[in-house]
Specification:
Elements (H helix, E strand, L loop, with lengths): L2 E4 L20 H24 L4 E4 L16 H4 L1 H13 L3 E4 L12 H21 L6 E4 L8 H12 L4 H4 L2 E4 L7 H11 L3 E4 H6 L6 H9 L10 E5 L17 H11 L4 E5 L5 H13 L12
Parallel strand pairs: 1-2, 1-8, 2-3, 3-4, 4-5, 5-6, 6-7, 7-8
Helix pairs in contact: 1-3, 3-4, 5-7, 10-11
This protein binds a DNA duplex through helix 4.
Length: about 300
DNA sequence: ATGAGTCAAGGTGAA
DNA sequence: TTCACCTTGACTCAT
């Protein structure tokens, strides 16, 4: 079991998201930003290893305009060594990383331009994993997409697009149950059609479900991951922010809820991404709870 | 130097 | 029909 947090480290003064405006695009700025972003990515991973956070979600902006036609800078070759260095570090420490392309990636859009741009974004993010030399257990996570008033047609269109994705993307793509439109059961239908694994989100499951008990839902999702090709199931963990709109993530982990959730896990092996606002602070508390119940090694690795 | 407004991109649903 | 919300910082420009 690995614990992680998404995209941003709040303890370090180093980010993987330095960027600039499209209007001020230049090759020089791409060069500068990617150089900074990869340096910080490695630094964050090093920081994480020291605290036994072995799971990390990398943000979409490591390469500014990475899938935009304006960006013709050969970052793949210019930064090949730096990407490889990150990948080597991940492998050396038995870490796992993932990407979560944002809401603009919609594979089931009825607009072919949007589908094509979405595929290009997935190709860009998948190519970073290729450059790192990381295999298909490191994932690209997206939602099924829009509903467009007809669930059946929307799911069919997702499947049709999935089947024509480049292999480098398809091998790594996973779908996540969402909180309003496509439930775990919808994702299972897509899985049965094309074999895509389901990244389970416990909070979305609480928001949108068909009455399955949490323990059963977890096992249904886990069974969609091929042990060697996909690795153990990845999941997102969060809980409701009190007094806020339904679906809003909590600012800080609620330890009692997390303990109860760990009980639902039983002996299931999963890697957990904590989608909680205070990032690594809550990840540390989650690790503490998992050590208490014997699901993580009792002590941190030897001091750096 | 600082604060406010803005940033490539889609879709949903409330107002 | 418009706008806030996904999530959030970081950039950009006006002051």
């Amino acid at each position: 079991m690995k614990i992680g947090y998404p995209c941003v480290n709040e303890s370090l003064d180093c980010t993987t998201t330095s960027t600039f405006r499209l209007a001020s695009y230049s090759d020089e700025r791409v060069e500068l930003a990617v150089s900074n972003n990869l340096r910080c990515l490695l630094r964050i991973l090093q920081w994480n290893v020291e605290r036994h956070f072995l799971f990390f979600r990398v943000g979409s902006g490591v390469v500014p305009f990475g899938s935009h036609p304006i960006n013709t800078y050969p970052w793949q070759t210019r930064f090949a060594a730096q990407f490889r260095e990150v990948g080597d570090f991940v492998k050396a420490h038995d870490m796992r990383i993932s990407f979560h392309p944002d809401q603009f990636v919609v594979l089931n859009s009825h607009n072919e331009d949007i589908v094509e741009r979405s595929i290009q974004e997935l190709v860009y993010q998948g190519s970073m994993l290729d450059l790192m030399g990381l295999d298909s257990t490191h994932k690209l996570q997206i939602h099924v997409g829009g509903l467009y008033g007809d669930r059946e047609v929307a799911i069919a269109r997702f499947i049709a697009t999935y089947e024509r994705l480049p292999e480098a993307v398809r091998a790594r793509l996973v779908i996540e149950n969402d909180d309003r439109l496509f439930s775990l059961q919808d994702c299972l239908r897509v899985h049965r059609a094309v074999g895509i694994p389901i990244l389970f989100d416990n909070f979305h499951q609480e928001c949108l479900n068909h009455g399955e008990p949490m323990a059963e839902a977890l096992r249904l999702a886990a069974a969609t991951w091929h042990p060697t090709h996909d690795g153990v199931m990845m999941m997102d963990y969060s809980s409701q922010a009190h007094g806020e709109r339904k679906g809003k993530h909590t600012a800080s982990i609620e330890e009692d809820l997390f303990r109860a959730f760990v009980q639902e896990l039983g002996d299931l092996d999963v890697d957990i991404m904590l989608e909680i606002k205070d990032k690594e602070a809550s990840a540390g508390r989650a690790c503490g709870i998992l050590r208490d119940v014997g699901r993580l090694a009792a002590s941190l690795p030897a001091a750096q």
